[in-house]
Amino acid sequence: MSGDVGFPDLVMVRQDRLIMAELKSARGKTTLEQDLWLQAAKRANIEVYVWRPAGIEQIEKILK
User: At residue 40, does pLDDT exceed 80?
Assistant: First the structure.
């Protein structure tokens, strides 16, 4: 299934946490397919993020 169009760039598991993250450039936009995957993950109570380089401090906090 991970070969499906729009599947998030990162899927991470740590103990009881499951995180999906889409990686974008500063001005990059998510596609419709990516949005659909991220919305489905949110409905499944998965932590979902769209990460950009400017958000590195927030990313580091989330991953600690």
Answer: yes
